[in-house]
Amino acid sequence: MAKLWGYLFLTTLLQKTFESAFSGAEQVTPPPLPILPLPTYSQLKWQQRELIMFHHFGVNTFTDSEWGTGQENPAMFNPTGLDTNQWVDSAVKAGFSLVILTAKHHDGFCLWPSKYTDHSVIKSPWRNGQGDVIRELANAAEAHGIDMGLYLSPWDRHDPRYGNERLYNEYYLAQLQELLNKYGSIREIWFDGAKGSNAPNMSYYFSDWFSMVSELQSTINIFSDAGPGVRWVGNENGYAGETCWSTINRTSLSIGNGSIVDYLNKGDPKGTNWLPAECDVSIRTGWFWHKSQSPKKLSKLLKIYYNSVGRNCVLLLNVPPNTTGLLAEQDVQRLQEFHKAIDVIFSTNLAEGCYLKASSQRGGKGSDFGPEKSLDGDHLWTYWAAGDDDKDKQWIEIGANNGGIKFNVVRIQEAIGLGQRIKRHEIYADGKRVASGTTVGYKRLHRLRAGLVDARNVRIKILDSRGLPLISSIGLHFDPFWNPKRKLLL
After folding, report:
1. Per-residue model confidence as pLDDT tens digits over 261-300
2. Are 369 and 384 in contact (CB under 8 A)?
3. Would you say residue 7 has pLDDT above 50?
4. Spatial distance between the Cα atoms of 166 and 26, rounded to a whole number of angstroms
């Protein structure tokens, strides 16, 4: 009998322990369900870069042209002072983590010694015909701890196989295999549909190319008008649409189709593919270096930043090497000014130290989804989430503990790892609307048109979203370079 009572006591104790543990687990509110489609791991890492540098370099650099003819003599390519370490060092100091090089532009001249053509550095006096620009850049990037990408122009004005569909696609695939096998990890590869109106009519085997790329480089992002990793933003001004979804329907896209640029610029809230936009623009007027040109003013670069990174995109800024093989000193100086300005504006978040409150909180007080998560430094996986029943009046508010907050930039970021959600939002300072917008995505920056605001509380209202909004980060910043004519005094 004693053994029986002992057995029953032990059984009861284990059952209570199990029930207690299960009950405790039930009390932890899980994250909300994602809103599809979702980004891949590589797309998330790409988005977090924010800034990528492009280098247009080749025979056009020496002919003072943008589109070469394909008839250039390779002997004119002779950058006697070429130093890819200077390129990469300049990129790193300006806050860039990836550099992309034009391995071959439309003229067909190759910056590496391809075994499939001699229209390359092989026939150049540079390094006595033994040079390899891509190898030197890959070594420099590795030494400085940043990543490399490549552009291989589909249009080739030199190679006689161009126009013969099978022969040219074989040639192009062969060069892709050279580039993706010989130079280590390539994190982005660029494809486009650019070609002249008089170019031979032929089809590119993009599906074959993309399959080969994915086979050879598992962490690469493929850029083109139609992705599949990153899409073109639809212009070369560096501007995304005020509404910019990372979602789109790839079935509606085709490479080189000029009629879809507006769709590319805005994306599609009903899109079934995650395909974020990259905004490409040159620091100068042209893409290749020209002695007569100068870099854009700092104010222009900052406007581009707000209209690209600040609209849920990544900025691809072209900085072309000169005939010596170096980035021009005035370009490097402007890059440093640009980097310093971004640091001055965003290194201080005036919302830190303020109190936060929200319309509701998923799981109630004490859960992992409180408004304080929007200030914890994690811009992806921690976030404020409204309660499931809070569907009409969702808001998060920043309040000053003492005095007011003086700012002219508002930053909002979504937890895009669970999908892009916000369709429409407004920002109020002490009850007065100071900004409004549509999409947010990874990052939305509002540089207030009215100028400096001095307020005790700032409320961000979510007016419409796909499911419940998830705000991973918010910020109030002061941009000393922003001086609009009108001022707003609250």
Report:
1. 999 999 999 999 999 999 999 999 999 999 999 999 999 9
2. yes
3. no
4. 61
Closest CA to 43 of 416, 353, 352: 416
Q: Of 441, 412, 433, 426, which is closest to residue 246 (Cα–Cα)?
A: 441
Structure-token match 């329907």, residue found: 249
Partners of 460 in beta bridges:
396, 427
Could you give the CA distance from residue 74 to residue 122 in angstroms, rounded to a whole number? 8
Which residues contact residue 462 at a Cβ distance below 8 angstroms, ignoring those fewer than 6 apart? 386, 394, 395, 422, 424, 425, 469
**CA torsion, points 7, 9, 10, 16, in degrees to nearest 10?**
140
* pLDDT given at position 174: 98
* Alpha-helical runs (H) found in 27-83: 41-49, 59-63
Q: Are 451 and 408 in contact (CB under 8 A)?
A: yes
Q: How far apart are CA 421 and CA 312, in angstroms?
A: 12
pLDDT tens digits, one per residue of 61-101: 999 999 999 999 999 999 999 999 999 999 999 999 999 99
Q: Does residue 485 carry a pLDDT above 70?
A: no
